[in-house]
């Protein structure tokens, strides 16, 4: 049997909702409600592009030169963004994940990260995707199964969909007070600035137009349940809404301008991140998992 490039497909359904999780990378390939995309998909006969739906473990975003120092030891991982001399989005994007549990509306996929060159630590990682009446929720759990503590961060890379067409005609809402600045060449952090009075203030909702965005935002406003939200209001009057729990202090927005021409600006990357870019070097918000310790982080998405 010939499998698709993204491997085995795990479909879950609830009412009008349908989502497909994939073996390769353990990510989400599509999520729709009543046939209307909520997350911008990629075709079943194509490889994942633009990290679409990928699980980003054990670090999200970029690691400069692929180098870091942890507990007094220097490490070097492979440069997976060689044109910028970075390692990007962790180590699990192209690994096979196995189904650990599945019901009609829920699937849990899991993988094991063995010690390797540059990351000599052991992690058990699972991601639970579940549909309920509100929408899709995604819970990522990592457990340090090694004998020493390890550095850890996580994220995911969904793209909110405008339904049809481009995101240029949409309005974006993200109530965040601070933007993490990056250099143009390598997109590594150079500082932070308040968004008030800048083109990157989306706190009250702002038409996107042709604005190019590829930045992480922090100091997120949260509702009474501790959730922070990104909302994409589309021309059809529907809103694709993504929320993150308090374990995610950072949300990256990405308008897709560096994707292949036919894929650009068809979705808004709205990426939950537990730590900023280059956290393995800076230590900023980096989690230090002790042996046997687990961490679960949760985000979700819905259509209103």
From TrEMBL:
It holds the Pfam family Aldose_epim. GO terms for molecular function: aldose 1-epimerase activity; carbohydrate binding. SUPFAM superfamilies: Galactose mutarotase-like. GO terms for biological process: galactose catabolic process via UDP-galactose, Leloir pathway; glucose metabolic process. This is Aldose 1-epimerase family protein. It comes from Candidatus Aeolococcus gillhamiae.
């Amino acid at each position: 049997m010939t499998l698709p490039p993204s491997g085995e497909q795990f479909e879950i359904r609830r009412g009008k909702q349908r989502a497909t999780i994939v073996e390769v990378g353990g990510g989400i390939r599509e999520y729709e409600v009543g046939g209307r995309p909520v997350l911008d998909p990629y075709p079943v006969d194509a490889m994942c592009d633009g990290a679409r739906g990928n699980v980003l473990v054990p670090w999200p975003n970029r690691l400069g030169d692929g180098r870091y120092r942890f507990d007094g030891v220097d490490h070097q991982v492979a440069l997976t963004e060689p044109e910028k001399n970075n390692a990007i989005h962790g180590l699990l994007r192209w690994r096979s994940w196995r189904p650990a549990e599945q019901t009609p509306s829920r699937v849990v996929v899991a993988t094991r990260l063995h010690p390797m060159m540059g990351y000599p630590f052991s992690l058990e990682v699972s991601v639970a995707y579940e549909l309920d009446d509100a929408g899709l929720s995604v819970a990522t759990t990592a457990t340090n199964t090694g004998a020493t503590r390890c550095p850890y961060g996580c994220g995911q890379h969904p793209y909110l969909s405008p339904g049809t067409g481009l995101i240029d005609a949409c309005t974006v809402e993200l109530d965040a007070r601070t933007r993490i600045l990056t250099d143009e060449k390598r997109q590594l952090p150079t500082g932070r600035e308040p968004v008030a009075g800048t083109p990157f203030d989306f706190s009250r909702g702002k038409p996107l137009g042709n604005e190019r965005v590829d930045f992480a935002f922090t100091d997120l406003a949260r509702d009474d349940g501790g959730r922070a939200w990104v909302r994409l209001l589309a021309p059809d009057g529907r809103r694709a809404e993504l929320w993150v729990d308090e374990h995610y202090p950072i949300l990256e927005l990405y308008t897709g301008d560096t994707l292949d021409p036919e894929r650009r600006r068809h979705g808004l990357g709205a990426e939950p991140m537990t730590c900023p870019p280059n956290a393995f070097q800076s230590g900023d918000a980096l989690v230090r998992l002790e042996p046997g310790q687990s961490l679960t982080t949760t985000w979700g998405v819905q259509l209103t």
